[in-house]
Amino acid sequence: MKRHLSKLYLLGALIAAGILSLFESSISPYYYQIIIYIGINIILASSLNIINGFAGQFSLGHAGFMAIGAYTSAVITFSAHAQPGTVTGYAVFTGALLAAGLVASFFGLLVGIPSLRLKGDYLAITTLGLGEIIRVIIQNLDFLGAARGFTGIAKMSNFFWVYGVVAVVIVLIWNLIHSTYGKGFLAVRDDEIAAEAIGINATHYKVVAFVTGAFFAGIAGGLYAHFVTYINPSQFGFLRSFEIVVMVVVGGMGSIVGVILAVVILTILPEALRAIAQYRMIIYALLLIVIMLSRPQGLFGGGINVKRSFRKAPTGT
Amino acid sequence: MALLSLRNCTIRFGGLVAVSKLTLDIESDDLLGLIGPNGAGKTTMFNMITGVYRPTSGEILFDGSSIVGMKPYHVARLGIARTFQNIRLFPSLTVYETVQAALQKSISYGFAQAAVQMKYLHHQERIIHDTIIEILDFFNLTRVKDEMAVSLPYGFQRRVEIVRALAARPRLLLLDEPAAGMNPSEKAALMELIASIREHYQSAVFLIEHDMRVVMGICKRVSVIDYGVKIAEGTPQEIQNNPRVIEAYLGEKV
Q: Facing residues of B60 across strands?
């Protein structure tokens, strides 16, 4: 019985997102933008959580996947002259989002391959480098607008699209982690050698984690591009990757609920602190330090201590 | 035909020969003990059999076909399970989930089906649930099924590790010092456990152990290695009286 609930939740969430999107014109644009950013960040952080939290592969290149998704989908809708508010426009947008996810997941595969040989800090640095490579390449591709950025993207993303994807991502991760298949991710994260010794193919799980994580990061990038309507490479730099990692770590690696909560707090906080202008980033940073000192496992962490996982990571065998 | 046979296996790490020209047979109903001084190459042998290390030369046949060069997970799926000298449980999994993770072999669905929850997945998951409960019942672990495996007392942790190895019903179980760090009553319970495993699971057992009471008490045959070379093999009685073994490992009776 319990198993069927996930489909009901998904359906309920989609309907709720649809109904709520009818009221979007009555919300002030400022709050509306924050709500959309929260949704996009939930997709980004949850998808990174598959890689970092569940499969235990410390990746610092998530913004790279997001950039690939953003540019892929922007190129598609732009060259197809997709118009918001039309059926063909939204059909193109759907295809563009899927393409964004697929292209990003292909790059996820490329990044996943080094993860088979590298662990912990070494993998983090490698993924960081790969994320930067993606950004620098885009910066030098003239047909993507190079450093000037890509303008004139149709404004397609709205509450319904963003929270529809949020619902899908959360239900998918939930289903995955609660299946016997999904326990393989956790086993690989906890102890790769012991996992292999009981017949779990660690390579398979690592690659699947990277491909799935990158897929949804790509879609998040597509949603982002079609919300802000203007993208440029500097939006997808190291700081963006880092922001997503912080959300996952603060929420608790491997915790679905914790990560959502952290995204909400960390997206609203800088806005709420706007009143004290120049001090807000200090307070933001202090808060992170306090959380990490008092709860190294994150707000809702299921027993994964960040400090511990870093300490044991490089020893490997 | 032997279930597992090692033919002239050698493994070299740079200039060090850890295991040298080792030949060994394990029958499908065997309970073979492996003893030898520290650093003799016992754990290396386990790592070689399970695919963690690849032998520099020689052949390993499981059920008649070579398993040299196979990845550890592949070897495990063929039916060779193991435990570790220093317990390696999954720190964030409960006892129930630990056994569940070990049942990967018995699911026939993959990522996509797990993600969208297809119908036949529920059927399989129900069977897996029943299997887990049955195994935990058999090993008296039902009471602690929702506890984190690593939070249990030492003897229980050893037991959970053995259960994890047995969950997928291996044909050969490798136990690396199962009695290490146990008190006498835990050791007695362990010996009973190993006996019941052979009865109930019909799997061959190959164990490394330093506790002679355990080895001599339950093993049908004992193999002795020293500096990577097999120096003796036979029944516990024969081994205890073998002068080479006494010199290398057991020591003179006082």
A: B6
Q: Do B92 and A212 touch (CB under 8 A)?
A: no
In this predicted structure, the answer to whether residue B175 has a pLDDT above a threshold of 60 is yes
Half-sphere exposure of A70 (CA within 13 A, CB side): 30
CB A177 within 8 A of CB A253: no
Domain spans in chain B, listed from the N-terminal domain onward:
1-79+170-254, 89-168
> Sign of torsion, CA B82 B87 B91 B96?
positive
Q: How confident is the model at residue A5 (pLDDT cuts 50, 70, 90)?
A: low
Q: Any bridge partners for residue B208, and if so which?
A: B34, B176
Q: Which residues contact A112 (CB under 8 A, 6 or more apart)?
A: A206, A207, A209, A210, A211
Residue B251: pLDDT over 80: no
Residue of B93, B117, B121, B125 to mutate, testing the A interface (most A Cβ within 10 Å of its Cβ)? B117
Cβ contacts (< 8 Å) between B164 and chain A: which residues? 198
Alpha helices in B202-247 (DSSP H): 212-218, 236-240, 243-245
Of B84, B91, B104, the CB nearest to A303: B91
Residues 245-274 in A contacting B (C-alpha not used; CB under 8 Å): 254
Contact with chain B for residue A121, Cβ under 8 A: no
* Number of residues that make up chain A: 317
CA distance A147 to A161: 28
Taking only the tens place, the pLDDT of each residue in A174-189 is 888 888 899 999 999 9
Task: Please say whether the dihedral angle defined by the alpha carbons of residues A183, A186, A187 and A193, taken in this order, is positive or negative.
Answer: positive
CB-based contact A186 B128, cutoff 8 Å: no
SS3 content of chain A, % helix, strand, coil (to 5): 80, 0, 20
How is chain A split into domains, by residue range? 2-234
Residue A212: closest C-alpha in chain B: B111
A313 part of contact set with chain B, CB < 8 Å:
no
Classify domain B1-79+170-254 at the CATH class level.
alpha beta
CB A142 within 8 A of CB A228: no
Shortest CB distance from A193 goes to which of B88, B91, B103?
Answer: B88
Residue B245's CB is within 10 A of a number of other CB atoms, namely: 22
